[in-house]
Specification:
With 266 residues, the protein is of the alpha/beta class. The chain has a single domain, classed as 3-Layer(aba) Sandwich (Rossmann fold), CATH 3.40.50.1820. Helices cover 37% and strands 21% of the residues. The protein is built from nine helices and nine strands. Strands 1, 2, 3, 4, 5, 6, 7, 8 and 9 form a nine-stranded mixed β-sheet that branches. The relative contact order is 0.14.
Length: 266
C-alpha cells in the first residue's frame, strides 16, 4: 500500500473566486491536528511541485494540503490587475480565508512555501500567528534585490522565444496573463523598493529558511534579513551548487534538512 494518497482535486469557493485544492493523506499520521500547507512559486501550480509534497508528508508523517492561488492552474483567473501589494493580498486575504474555510479552528498549520509562496508564508505567519506551528521557506524574498530584477529579463526573453511553453500544461489560457503579471510587477517602479522586513518582525513561530547558492533571483541577503527580522527562532541554510528550486534540484537533501529541523524542535 502507498504510504500516502492524493484526494481528487476539489474547488473551494471564496466569495467571487474558486481555489483548486488537493489533500494528501498519509497512511501513518503521527498527529491529525497538524497539517502541512504548501504554497507554490510565482508561476507555480499543484502539478509543478512534482512529488515533493507527498515525500515531505511521508517524511514528517503528517497530512498535506496543496492549493493554487487565484490566476494559477485550475483556480479562477485574475479578476483585478495585480498591484505591488499582491503578496500581502494573497497572504492576508486569500490564504486567510482559505484556511478559515478549509480547516476547523483547532487545526495547526505548518507552512511550506517556495519563492513567492515562501514570502506569502512569512506574511501569513506574521499576521495570523495563533494557528501556525512553523514556517519553512525555499527561495523566499523579503526585499526586491537587483539580482531579482536582473534574473527576470532572461525569463521574459525565454518566454517570448517560446521556450516556456510548458507552462501552458499547468495554466492553460491563463498562462500569458500570469507570466506578465509576475514579470511586470517585479520590474515595475512601484515594486523597486518593495520590502517586508518590518512586516515579518512579529513572527514568533520557528522558521527554517533555505536558499540555493546559484539562485538567479536572490542572494544570501534574503536569508540574513529573515534571520535578523523574525523575532522567533530562525534556522537558515545555503545549499551550494543549487538554484532557485532546491526542493526539485536536491530533493533528498532538502527533505532531510527539513526533517532534522522538526526533529530538533520536538
Amino acid at each position: 500500500m502507498s504510504p500516502f494518497f492524493f484526494e481528487s482535486m476539489q474547488h473551494i469557493q471564496l466569495q467571487n473566486k474558486t481555489i483548486a485544492v488537493q489533500t494528501i493523506r498519509v497512511e501513518q499520521n503521527r498527529n491529525e491536528h497538524i497539517i502541512l500547507v504548501f504554497l507554490h512559486e510565482a508561476l507555480g501550480s499543484i502539478g509543478q511541485w512534482k512529488a515533493f509534497p507527498e515525500l515531505l508528508c511521508k517524511k514528517l508523517q503528517l497530512d498535506g494540503f496543496v492549493y493554487e492561488r487565484q490566476g494559477h492552474g485550475s483556480s479562477s483567473p485574475f479578476s483585478n490587475e495585480r498591484t505591488a501589494s499582491y503578496l500581502h493580498d494573497y497572504a492576508w486575504d486569500e490564504l486567510n480565508k482559505l484556511i478559515q474555510t478549509a480547516f476547523p479552528s483547532d487545526k495547526k498549520i505548518i507552512l511550506v512555501g517556495h519563492s513567492d509562496g515562501g514570502t506569502i508564508a512569512l506574511l501569513y505567519a506574521a499576521k495570523f500567528p495563533k494557528n501556525v506551528l512553523a514556517c519553512v521557506t525555499m527561495a523566499a524574498h523579503v526585499i526586491n534585490e537587483p539580482e531579482t530584477i536582473a534574473g527576470i529579463q532572461p525569463a521574459i526573453e525565454a518566454y517570448e522565444a517560446g521556450k516556456l511553453v510548458g507552462l501552458t500544461k499547468y495554466h492553460g489560457v491563463k498562462t500569458e496573463s500570469l507570466f506578465y503579471a509576475w514579470a511586470r510587477t517585479w520590474k515595475s517602479d512601484e515594486f523597486k523598493d518593495w520590502d517586508i522586513c518590518k512586516d515579518i518582525q512579529s513572527i514568533s513561530c520557528p522558521v527554517f529558511a533555505i536558499q540555493g547558492s546559484t539562485d538567479q533571483y536572490g542572494t544570501e541577503k534574503q536569508l540574513d534579513l529573515i534571520k535578523t527580522n523574525v523575532s522567533g527562532k530562525v534556522k537558515t541554510i545555503m545549499i551550494s551548487n543549487c538554484g532557485h528550486q532546491p526542493h526539485l534540484e536536491v530533493p533528498e537533501h532538502v527533505l532531510s534538512e527539513i526533517q532534522q529541523f522538526f526533529t530538533s524542535e520536538n
